[in-house]
Amino acid sequence: MSGRASGMSGRAARGFWGEAWDRYRRKPLAVAALAFVCLLAAVAVFAPAIAGTKPVLCRYKGRLHAPCLGYFDRRLEPAIFAQDKFRGSYPQNLREKDPDSWAIWPLVFQDPHRAVRENEWPGRPANPAQDAGRPNRLNLFGTDQYGVDVFAKMVHGTTIALLVGVVSMGLAGTIGIVVGALGGYFGGWVDMLTSRITEIVMCVPTLVLILAVIAIVDKPSIWKTMAIIGATGWTGIARLTRAEFLRLKSCEFVTAARATGAGPLRIMLRHILPNALAPVLVPITFGIASAILTESALSFLGFGPPPPAASWGSLLNDARANLSMWWLVVFPGTAIFLTVLAYNLVGEALQEVTDPRLRESRK
Amino acid sequence: MASYLLRRLLLGGLTLVAITFIVYGLARNMPGTPLTVQLGETDPSRKLNPEDQERMRRIYGLDRPWPEGYVRWLGSVFRGDLGRSFSRKQPVITLIGERIGPTFLVSGTAFLLTWLMGVPLGLYASARSGRLDERASSLLLYVLYSFPTFVAALFLQVVFAVWLRDTRWELPLFGMSDLPADAGWLARAVDIARHAILPITCQTYVSLAYDSRFIKANMEEAVRQDYVRTARAKGAGPWRVLFHHAFRNTLIPLVTLLGLSLPGLIGGSVIIEQIFTWPGMGRLFFESIRERDYPTIMGLTLMFSVLTLVGQLLADMLYCLVDPRVSVS
Amino acid sequence: MRRGSDPAIRAAACLALAAVVGLPACSRRGDDLPQPATTAAAPGGIPASAADRPPEPFDPPPLADLDRDAKWIDRPVRDGLKLLREQQGREQPEDTAAEALALRNTSASVNRRILAALGRLPEDGEADFSARVDRHVPGDLGSTNPIMISTTAEFDILGLTGFGLFSFGRDLEPFASAESVVSWQTSADGLLDKVVLRDDMVWSDGKPITAQDVAFSYMVIMDPRVPVPAVRSGTDQMRWVHAYDDRTVVFFHKEPLATNVWNINYPVLPKHVYENTWEADPTLKESAEHVRLEQEPVSGGPYEIVERKRGQQIVLRRRESWSHVGGRQVRDVPFFKEIRFRIIEDANTALLALKAGEIDELALSPEQWTTQTTDDAFSARNTKVTATEWVSFHFGWNIESPFFADRRVRRAMSYAFDHDRMLEKLCYGLYKPAAGNFPEESWMAPKRKLQPYRQDLDKAEALLDEAGWIDHDNDGIRDKEIDGRLVPFEFSMLVNQQPLRIAICTLLKENLGQIGVQLNVRPTEATVIQDLTQKRKFQAYFGGWGAGTDPDSSENIWATGAGRNYVGYSNPEVDRLYAEGRRELDRAKRAEKYGRIQEILYDDQPYTWLFWRNSFYGFSKDLRGYVFSPRGPYNYTPGFGSLWMPRQE
Q1: I need a labelling partner for A316 at 20 to 30 A (CA). Which of A133, A230, B146, C261 fits?
Q2: Is the peptide bond before C638 cis (omega within 30 degrees of 0)?
Q3: For residue C143, which of C203, C230, C237, C208 has the smallest C-alpha distance?
Q4: Is C347's CB within 8 Å of A145's CB?
Q5: Neighbours of B79 (CB within 10 A)
Q6: Is B300 exposed, middle or buried (0-12, 13-18, 19+ CB in 10 A)?
Q7: Interface partners of A (3+ CB pairs, < 8 Å)?
Q8: DSSP letter (8 states) at residue C452
Q9: In B, which residues are within 8 Å of A361 by CB distance?
Q10: Coil, strand or helix: which one is B164?
Q11: ∠ at Cα C232 (C314, C153), nearest 5°?
């Protein structure tokens, strides 16, 4: 593989990925897209610190607590606040129950799961409900028809937007490439078996599976649904991979590799796969990007994330019934568009920097 | 070739049995039966007798274990009888027959349009890769792509059926046809076509971005090959290089994609059909799952599976045609 | 490729052959669809019960004997439209129709004015009898056979094409319809009902409608092979129905119950059409003839189905033979010449269609009422009205689960929920709070007004503490030791996939989270909820009931072991009160019993009652005559029959 051939220039060889990164860095759009994705990741990780009604850090009755972790998991919220009957409302209670307490609050005092009540933060009105919730100083992106702040919902829904594609496509890509490679390379009865498995999975309707899981599982979540989509969506990738392997396995470089004593695994992984990835990367990158759209389609059909969790897709779905509230469409829609664009640009750039032939031609 | 075909057909039959068995098992074992659907919809002030429910279960054959139900269904399929729908009181074949035309009208036209527009777009994008106009058109396609169908459908409805009402650009809001049954066939054809425009548009724009990008990616790779360099060195013009040499070598993934799209032609899109009240297969399938209408679910699954398998078989055979290095073995 | 016969191929071929030959032998005719159960106990199936046998043969005594002994009491025979006219004659609306059309419905008083002005029946010559109206249904008909009715779409459509003897008015009081009945009498002992039909009624194919059709329909409905669960409830309480001649029919009851008057009300099939075909195909939908009838049914009502495009629309046309028989007019001519039911599943598309004038009426959601119908685009063509409906919604607590067996816990749930917030913010201030199954203004509500619950978190916490749910392990969630294990108070609630319902359950989740209880909201399909609640495989669910025309119908919800008693409630006193209420014929005494039932239920809180739903409707400005009952604008007499369109000058 030509990846390690740069000893000529006198610098130490950076390795395959190091070189790929070097080339990647030189594409401004791709770098911008990657930066956007990293920004989203940061938002997802720090979501409770960006928007929430629980303090990020507070000192109460002599001890330090981080109640905002309760947004990740209910059990991470310190129990002392429940015992002292805070009832989920922090600003007034902290001050009343412990005058020495202090707290660091999130950037935006809004809750993604509920509407903020009157005077919850001293001096602030309750969130407007119905169609009165236009974007304003307190509600940057407006509120939905029940009074829940849209900005907070979007910030906390970033995790879903980011990872929903990675989960489903990660699963689909892995299974698909493995199955397709095995079938395409070995041929014969292996190919027959893998093709039949592919066909069976292709023909079993995903909708039935999703409905079955939702009906049976006691705590359905968006991740289980996306896992199902990944576990049934690998068939296209498998077919494409298989076709490529079929085509490439009779090429000269494969015969050469075999002549040097390489085993089948090595040939498949190091020789054929990098050459076969080009047509497969397209469905994978599109798949990651479009998982967000699939997720919003699921919300339309009624299989969205279980309440009160909200995703950008379910926000769009809410918007359908409330056409006059343009902010329910514009903000999530723009966010979805930017994310789709970013993932696709990253995917395109990745394809260009890792394809050996493309690299060759650029020299 | 003949023995290969025979083998594939037999294997296909076994695969079909496996698929239908799995789907039947899933459907029967999910919570909810056709009876709970009826009960759920019944006027809540109607009394319910547990004995009556048992009686109904017996009538529908739901008191039998599900493997037995599957075997009976399979037997009747072999005799050409797909059964009668529980909720619609019609033979499944008639149901499918009613819906397949409208579905194909929308999906088939969308499919044609997508490829008619997508292939040139992809070739154009790969020819002018990296330039401003290509970047701009790519961006536009991505914008289109990131519009969920239900948002776009709603937007189109508002524009064409509400704002443009009573103008010559008006398009119908929903349904397939407004004319009474006795209108002339030409008038009906035009009416149906007008009703189909919005659903077709919704179905086309989604795949445009994907298909053109797919072609572009494959073309980029093909264009880097040595034989293309040779062709250029020999003095072949850019279009000849593109079409005659590079494009033909992207045909394998293209054929795969086409083979995978075949079942989608009669699958239809649930969302589009629901919004536009288009009498298509996607909606039929979704409703039959919701209503636990087992005969319809099984009939539809059987049909889709057959089409999928045929599509795969065709694709496999086309590989041999398209690429001499590939042989069926 | 290898030549010669592949052993694999041979094996597969043998298998396939075996499959093709063997399988048909295993199956019976017609796959796993409704099979006529020819014997009482199907082999391998569930043992048969009384429901599998037709009613025992009954030898009716001669009519002369009945007339001699029964001491007949006359019962009301009314014309619904005339009743409405009399009622409206006593009222005088504030505005004219033109003024009312210009109003925008923004408050209860405006709503009343619009209803008063636009709900009036036409004066002579005002109505356009050649008008056509476009109505909306959210789903298609399952069947055009009147005894197979189960969905709301079917009630709407088949209510116009079907024939029946009885009905009820706005006050939900039953009467015999003057359009089909001459006289209706009940025997003094309450065991007999005698009806004399009019002799001037014909089916849409020209054959006369007779008492034989009524008796025949009873037989078909009661036959165990015919799959009709919905219509049968009620008819199975009778002993027999016998037609003594073409005009006289007598209903024989098993016991003298107050509910007998509802059991005699069932849809009627034409005997001459079905008598030769129904036994061969009791499912009424498989044989070629029955399939043809599904497409072109014979109707006995004022309208007949002339076109049926599945999944798209159903067109009804007024039939001459309803109002004119033998050349003379014998009944009022229905106002509309043609009614087109347009099927639009998607709510948004339907609203757009109403705004565009493609449909003339639409049931609105509270969201659409508040935010989507206030603009000029809507008011240009339409107006909207609302009225209370006797449908209430609740959280149901499974009493058999370890969480909700204790009454204190259930009451804690009712105290924890922020009812005010739900009513104001989620329901847009449009609904009234509910405290029980019977609405305040009904005759069966208790004299002492039951106060709807309001949120009191302190009380809720105190009740939970009392019931033993305390946070023992300091993780913020209450728990209790049950059978040696520490069980956290975490449960799930089944709810339909509708945004408002999900929002209400989410509000409960938030409220419960404030007091240390973890609720997981599970939106699922309606059929799954139905299935799981029937099998008692749930902890809590969100549901609703209509109050029904007779309070006895709620026995099915509260009696021990009853069919709709999903929460597993059991109280011998309630059972006793229901049994007595059925037999009590004095209205005031009946009301006492049902009032007492309500009070007991209120104390026990097997449900947390939430609100009474209003019906919201958008009507085209061309429509007049819509009048609301507690069952909506159409589910009573005259129902849709009172709507009309004025003549365009």
Answers
A1: A230
A2: yes
A3: C230
A4: no
A5: 11
A6: buried
A7: B, C
A8: P
A9: 224
A10: coil
A11: 20
| B75-84, B318-327, C156-165: segment of lowest average pLDDT | B318-327
Backbone angles phi, psi at C78, to 5 degrees: -130, 155
Helix, strand, or coil here: C383?
strand
Classify residue C203 by burial, with Cβ atoms within 10 Å: 0-12, 13-18, 19+.
buried
Query: What are the distances in angstroms from CA A279 to CA A169, B246, B311?
Result: 15, 14, 19
The token pair that represents C440 in the structure block: 């305040």
Cβ contact A332:A315 at 8 Å: yes
Contact C143, C241 (CB under 8 A): no
- Higher pLDDT pick, A242 / B227: A242
Who's near B242: CB < 8 A, 6+ residues apart?
Answer: B123, B126, B127, B219, B223
How far, in Å, are A45, B314, C12 from residue A183 at the CA level?
Answer: 40, 18, 21
Helix ranges (H only) for C417-524 are 419-421, 457-466, 499-514
Strand partners, C362: C618
Find the length of chain B: 329
Asked if the Cβ–Cβ distance from A74 to C477 is below 8 Å, we say: yes
* Cα separation, B258 vs C616, whole angstroms: 49
* pLDDT, tens only, C545-604: 887 778 888 888 898 988 788 999 999 999 999 999 888 888 888 899 999 999 999 999
Contact of A14 with A22, CB cutoff 8 Å: yes
End-to-end alpha carbon distance in chain A: 16
**Amino acid, single-letter form, for residue C544:** G
State the Cα–Cα distance between residues A310 and A298, nearest whole angstrom: 13
Report yes or no: C554 and A339 within 8 Å, Cβ to Cβ: no
Contacts of C18 (CB under 8 A, 6+ apart): none
Integer CA distances (angstroms), B288 to B19, B33, B87, B108, in order: 18, 11, 8, 23
From B133, B75, B200, A318, select the one nearest C367 (Cα to Cα). Answer: A318
Chain B neighbours among A 280-309 (CB < 8 Å)?
Answer: 281-283, 286, 289-290, 293, 296-297, 300-301
CA-atom Rg of chain B in angstroms: 25
Cβ atoms of A245 and A181 within 8 Å: the answer is yes
Residue B264 or residue A225, greater confidence? A225
Which amino acid, one-letter code, is at A276? A
End-to-end CA distance of chain C: 84
> Cβ of A320 and B315 within 8 Å?
no
Q: Kindly tell me if the per-residue pLDDT of B314 is higher than 90.
A: no
Strand partners, C193: C186, C251
Alpha-carbon distance B203 to B214, whole Å?
18
Work out whether strand C73-74 and strand C181-186 pair parallel, antiparallel, or are unpaired.
Answer: antiparallel
Measured between alpha carbons, how far is A84 from A114 in angstroms, rounded to an integer?
21
User: What is the SS3 string spanning C526-569?
Assistant: HHHHHHHHHCCCCCEEEEEEECCCCHHHHHHHHCCCCCCCCCCC
Closest to C136 measured CA to CA, from C342, C352, C314: C342
Residues of B with CB below 8 A from A341's CB?
Answer: 139, 142, 146
- Each residue of B114-153: pLDDT tens digit? 888 888 888 888 777 778 888 888 888 888 887 788 888 8
Region of C179 on the Ramachandran plot (φ > 0 left; ψ -120 to 50 alpha; else beta): alpha
C518-524 vs C490-496, strand pairing mode: parallel
C137: β partners: C343
Query: Is residue A58 classed as helix, strand or coil in its secondary structure?
Result: strand
Instruction: State the residue for tokens 């399988």.
Output: C23
Residues of A in contact with C499 (CB under 8 A): 318, 321
* Percentage above 90 pLDDT, chain B: 10
Option in A204, A239, A246 nearest B23 (CB): A204
DSSP code, position C358: S
Q: Beta-carbon neighbour count of residue C514 at 10 Å?
A: 18
HSE-CB for A336 with a 13 A CA cutoff: 27
